[in-house]
Design brief:
This protein is α+β, with helices and mostly antiparallel strands and about 325 residues long. The chain is about 20% helix and about 40% strand. It has 4 helices and 17 strands. Bound molecules: 2-acetamido-2-deoxy-beta-D-glucopyranose.
């Protein structure tokens, strides 16, 4: 019986207390968008249902939903200290209370609640403000590489965009603005800081390839952010040059030698044809034996002719 009375008293007390504080409200903007790396300010106004001209706000308490660690308190009461998390500050300006996030990060995204304590009572149930965070994607990069795994594809275009939030999309277009995104394979990676790295691979089929494709980055709201063009004709850097640097001089010198030999052969031929016009008993195969018998004064054979004829034989 005694406990029932006690419960009743507690109930009445809380009714009275709740009623007394019910004319102070904290009214916040529902959603605020902050940018990664910039300052975000969550702002609320303290309103009263009755006019209280000399209302004094003693305490402002900001909490984050689902994050028990987060608590930022501005405390104006004598002998009390503020409790700010590093990088977060609570500001009070007349009847405007705000939470200032100095360097917004992806992890700051979420719902924050604000409550105040005044000399005329506490605020009603906490009201919340939703912080949305965005980060603009960096300009995309794209390249082309030879494709070996996908049958019928000879090249693959790869596009990459980093540093954005929330998740966006990469889309492909050809010169005629026809979209090819359906043929591409997208991939996204969320980095430690929460930012996204988007990439997309577009295989190019033999015989149905445009010379240039465009990779366009769209942000989470579907707005075009940036684009990059990539040529499908671009070839990857050749495998190590060492082969061609050795082969090229060898080919040049080799062809020079062959050319010289052919020239010598031609000269020798003509000489031996002249000789053959004279009567000779020596068979052609032994042509080199004749060389010394030709008229050395009129028709001196070059010394190398013998060797050339020998090679020919
Ligand atoms: C997408 O880009 C548009 C235009 O730049 C911008 O207004 C919008 O806030 C961006 N949305 C997101 C989610 O980043």
């Amino acid at each position: 019986m005694a406990s029932c009375v006690l419960l009743f008293l507690i109930f009445c007390f809380s009714c009275y207390y709740g009623h007394a504080s019910s004319f102070i409200m904290v009214v916040c903007e529902k959603t605020i968008t902050g940018q990664v790396g910039h300052q975000s300010v969550l702002t609320c106004k303290v309103e009263t249902t009755q006019d209280i001209p000399d209302l004094t706000i003693l305490m402002v308490v900001w909490k984050k939903k689902g994050d028990d660690q987060f608590l930022s308190v501005l405390d104006k009461r004598a002998g009390k200290e503020n409790k700010f998390q590093p990088g977060y500050e609570v500001a009070l300006n007349n009847r405007t209370v705000s939470l200032v996030i100095t360097d917004t990060k992806v992890k700051d995204e979420g719902e924050y609640t604000c409550q105040v304590v005044t000399d005329s009572g506490n605020s009603m149930k906490p009201t919340s403000v939703n912080l949305k965070v965005t980060a603009k994607y960096h300009p995309p990069t794209a390249n082309s590489s030879d494709e070996k795994e996908i049958p019928n594809a000879h090249k693959t275009l790869t596009c990459k965009a980093t540093g954005g939030y929330p998740k966006g999309e990469l889309r492909w277009f050809d010169e005629n603005k026809t979209e090819w995104t359906k043929s591409a394979t997208p991939e996204e990676n969320q980095m430690e800081d929460g930012l996204f790295e988007l990439s997309s691979k577009l295989p190019l089929m033999r015989g149905s390839t445009f010379s240039e494709y465009k990779c366009v980055v769209y942000n989470a709201s579907g707005d075009r952010v940036d684009s990059v063009a990539v040529s499908s004709q671009l070839t990857e850097p050749e495998p190590p040059k060492s082969h061609s640097t050795i082969i090229a001089p060898v080919v040049v010198i080799g062809s020079l030698i062959v050319g010289l030999l052919l020239l010598l052969l031609f000269i020798c031929r003509r000489r031996s044809q002249k000789k053959n016009r004279r009567p000779s008993t020596v068979p052609l195969m032994g042509a080199h034996a004749m060389v010394p018998h030709s008229d050395p004064e009129i028709d001196p054979p070059p010394p190398y002719c013998e060797d050339i004829e020998a090679i020919k034989a």
